[in-house]
Each structure stands twice: as structure tokens, then as C-alpha cells.
């Protein structure tokens, strides 16, 4: 199988709502989700607290010329406080099943770091479930370090799961 060709990362657009909602539903798993599996009728992907301005997306083209959104990452200030306006937080990352192994996640993490710097941040953080080994490995390979663990913070699929806090410096803003 030929890996999809990634297009440049771009900001999400309101018109991406349906495609992002479908991507979110199709990738739902207790490996990374703490909310229940979505069921119809589905809510819009974008809402008052989750606008297109918070998301970066990457599209990809397959060998047969088909193109679509291969993944997204959500980047937001962790709080509305001026005292931590220098921090951005990744609050969501999804990669389409058909695009896995093509570097989509790494591309999005790097784009989020670049966008955070562009916004004036000098630090970026995230939370990841302790059993999500692939995501933790990706983040560690991109310079994120474990900064704290909330043991047994979530009860998912019959087991208690740690919430792992990770972060990294972005250098001077």
C-alpha cells in the first residue's frame, strides 16, 4: 500500500465541520477518549467552545487521487488567565485510519508547536491517557516530557487509567 501524500497543514474552516465530525467518530476509542462513544443524533463538530480557529488540519492524497482530511489537532490556551498566556495546550489529536503510519500525527504536533510559537507561547502542554502508548511515544519523540501523573483518574472499559501530563519548552517567544 502506498502512503498518502500529505498536503500542508492549514487552519480548519467552518466547511470542515462534517468531515472533522466523521473523523472524530471513526477514530473514537477508549485508548484516547474519556467521553462515551458518540451516538446519533450527532452534535456539530464546531460549537461555542470548539471553533475552527482552535484546530489545524492536514489533508492527504492517496495513490488513486482521492483526497480528504487525514487528521486534526486542537491547540488552545489552557486557561483564560493572563498569568499563563505564554502556554498553549494540545486538547485533541486524531488521525484517520487510512492515513496512519504516514507521519500525520508528527506533522500535526510539529505544526501545533510552530503555531503556538507564532501566537507568542514559549511552552506547550497536553494530557494523554497512560495506556495510550503510541501517542506517548510520539509526544516523547517530539520533546515532550512527563510532568505529572494523575493515577487512576479515569475509569474506562472496566479499568482505571492514569492521566499523564506532558509538556515542553518552545524556547523564547
Which features would summarize this protein structure in a list?
173 residues; alpha+beta; Aminopeptidase; 8-stranded mixed beta sheet; 3 helices; 8 strands; 20% helix
What this model shows, in words?
- The chain has 173 residues and is α+β, with helices and mostly antiparallel strands.
- It has a domain at 3-120: Aminopeptidase (3-Layer(aba) Sandwich).
- Helix content is 20%, strand content 35%.
- Strands 1, 2, 3, 4, 5, 6, 7 and 8 form an eight-stranded mixed beta sheet that branches.
- A hairpin with a 5-residue loop joins strand 3 (55-61) and strand 4 (67-76).
- The chain is globular, with a radius of gyration of 16 Å.
CATH class of the domain at 3-120: Alpha Beta
Global Rg = 16 Å
Structural class based on helices, strands and sheet pairing: alpha+beta
Helical percentage: 10-25%
The name of the CATH architecture of the domain at 3-120 is 3-Layer(aba) Sandwich
Largest sheet: number of strands, sense, barrel closure: 8 strands, mixed
The CATH topology of the domain at 3-120 is Aminopeptidase
Question: What is the count of β-strands?
Answer: 8
State the low-pLDDT regions, or none: none
Given the C-alpha coordinates, what overall shape results? globular
CA(first)-CA(last) distance: 41 Å
Q: Could you give a short description of this structure?
A:
This protein is an alpha+beta fold. It has three helices and eight strands; from the N terminus they run E-E-H-E-E-E-H-E-H-E-E. It has helices spanning 17-26, 104-118, 133-141; strands at 5-6, 10-11, 55-61, 67-76, 87-95, 123-129, 145-156, 159-169.
